[in-house]
Design goal:
The protein has 361 residues and is of the alpha/beta class. It contains 11 helices and 12 strands. The protein has an 8-stranded mixed beta sheet with strand order 6-7-8-3-9-10-12-11, with helices on both faces.
Length: 361
């Protein structure tokens, strides 16, 4: 594949005059920051743009601390983002009042990371699952809808009728959490690490359950995880996040087979194989603090292809292949994941897979 620098499609901000009919959720310049004391600020999410198509499963991956869970909570307005917008069904949630956001919540639900602590230990399971109906004035439907949803997630309504969360395993509690999220028939389901606390065998059951529920209820899923194997199995597209920014976006198989961003390559290379060896070369060091992120490209301090340009210029998200987008000055093109990263040479180059020697940082 030849260089696409001149003809790349810049996705710094989606066009306002050409909305996609199949887009149910759109993030524009989303920023989430938190005070850290002593005048410091945690830059959790830094101006990301992302679209979620109706009926798809979008995987959001990255290392712990990259901001993916914060992004999920910002979509839910928990809390409201510092700046930017979250468009859901054509309405900007960030510009709505708390009461207006509340009215839209039935269509936008979330499954939290810890299935046990997210459930009220004092309440019985049917009450936990049915409370959303009561809150929204649909209490008369509770006797009919709750048993139906419990059966849908593989729980016997009669067996769980008098039981509380502490009497269930983690996988069963996650099924209860899914039932609670589905009882209001949402359009979008934000899944924040829904299987990370579960055993491998239980993970498979929950993933299969999510796929079944997606088909049954016509859901759109945003699946947040750090386990790339899980994301590869369940996602239609994958967005890779590093230190508060999206660095690569594309169809799942294409992204895993031939990652174009050095960070994505690091993640894919770190997937354990049956041979016990990693594929290709990876970056070194640990992720910098979000309190003081590096200038320019935030991955440059760990990237073997970093240059002076990477330190001074923030890379824009652009299309380097059909449906493949990356924010990198030196994307790795025409290079399979099994091969080592291209050798660095002196001088600044375009996006042809060959990059200069790393700059001091």
């Amino acid at each position: 594949m030849s260089s696409t620098t001149d003809s790349s499609v810049v996705l710094e901000k989606p066009a306002e005059d050409k909305p996609s009919e199949d887009v149910v959720l759109r993030l524009e310049d989303l920023v989430v920051e938190f005070p850290a004391g002593a005048g410091q600020i945690v830059h959790a999410v830094s101006g990301i743009n992302l679209e979620v198509r109706r009926g798809e499963t979008l995987g959001l991956v990255g290392e712990s601390g990259c901001g993916k869970s914060t992004t999920g909570r910002a979509i839910m307005q928990l809390p409201k983002p510092t700046s930017g917008s979250v468009h859901f069904d054509g309405r900007d949630l960030a510009s709505l009042s708390s009461e207006e956001v509340r009215k839209l919540r039935p269509k936008l639900q979330m499954i939290f990371q810890d299935p046990i602590s997210s459930l009220n230990p004092r309440r019985r399971i049917p009450d936990i699952v049915g409370d959303p109906l009561v809150v929204w004035g649909r209490g008369a439907e509770k006797a009919k809808v709750v048993p139906e949803v419990l059966r849908a997630v593989g729980l016997d309504p009669e067996q769980v009728a008098d039981r509380r969360p502490h009497q269930f395993s983690g996988g069963q509690c996650q099924r209860v959490s899914i039932a609670r999220a589905l009882v209001l028939e949402p359009e979008v389901l934000i899944c924040d690490e829904p299987v990370s606390a579960l055993d491998v065998s239980v993970q498979a059951q929950i993933l299969n359950l999510l796929e079944d529920m997606k088909a049954r209820y016509g859901l759109t899923l945003v699946f947040i995880a750090h386990d790339l194997g899980v994301v590869r199995n369940i996602s239609d597209r994958v967005a890779v996040m590093y230190l508060g920014r999206i660095c690569e976006l594309g169809p799942t198989e294409a992204l895993f087979d031939a990652p174009v961003h050095p960070y994505t390559r690091l993640l894919v290379s770190s997937i354990p194989s049956m041979e016990g060896a990693q594929r290709g070369e990876v970056g070194t060091g640990e992720m910098p603090s979000p309190v003081s992120p590096p200038s320019g490209c935030r991955f440059r301090t760990r990237c073997p292809l970093a240059t002076d340009r990477c330190a001074s210029e923030v890379p824009e998200m652009r299309e380097v292949a059909p449906g493949r987008f990356t924010a990198c000055h030196h994307p790795i093109l025409d290079t399979p994941v099994e091969a080592p990263l291209p050798a660095a040479v002196a001088g600044d180059h375009s996006t042809n897979g060959t990059a200069p020697a790393p700059a001091d940082s």
